[in-house]
């Protein structure tokens, strides 16, 4: 959890001085330059800190991240999903209509996160 909070705090920082009394220098530098690398910034300093092999793995890693600011309920609005992608040449997205109200009435429980979609046809 501290790791995730620090990522958020370092997101828009131009240096790490204000955090230097709270974290070990090596850990803080690693987090800072890793965040810069994820944003496509210069990898040179990160390569020095974590080595060429690890930096190359980070640089070439495929990533798909669903942004937290997405709506959880759309109502009559068109579906809109905000994502970040890195090193993906092709992405296929299938959207299924799922009537949660009917599910709740029938099962009396919230739908599981891994709902079985076998037999359903994507709407979009």
The quaternary state of the protein chains shown equals single chain
Please describe the biggest sheet, giving its number of strands, its sense, and whether it closes into a barrel.
Answer: 2 strands, antiparallel
Number of strands: 2
Structural class comes to mainly alpha
pLDDT averaged residue by residue: 80
Low-confidence stretches: none
* SSE ordering: HHHHEEH
Radius of gyration over alpha carbons?
Answer: 20 Å
Give the total of domains.
2
| Beta-strand percent range | 5-15%
Shape: elongated
**Helicity level, as a percent range?**
25-40%
Q: Kindly, what is the distance between the CA atoms of the first and last residues, rounded to a whole number of angstroms?
A: 35 Å
For the biggest β-sheet, the strand order reads: 1-2
**How many DSSP H or I helices?**
5
Describe this structure as you would to a colleague.
The chain has 124 residues and is mainly alpha-helical. The chain has two domains: 2-61, no CATH class; 64-124, no CATH class. It contains five helices and two strands. The protein has helices at residues 2-10, 25-38, 44-50, 52-60, 100-107, and strands at 63-66, 83-86. Strands 1-2 form a two-stranded antiparallel ribbon. Helix 2 (25-38) packs across helix 3. It is elongated. The protein starts with a helix and ends in a 17-residue tail after the last helix. The model has no long low-confidence stretch (mean pLDDT 80).
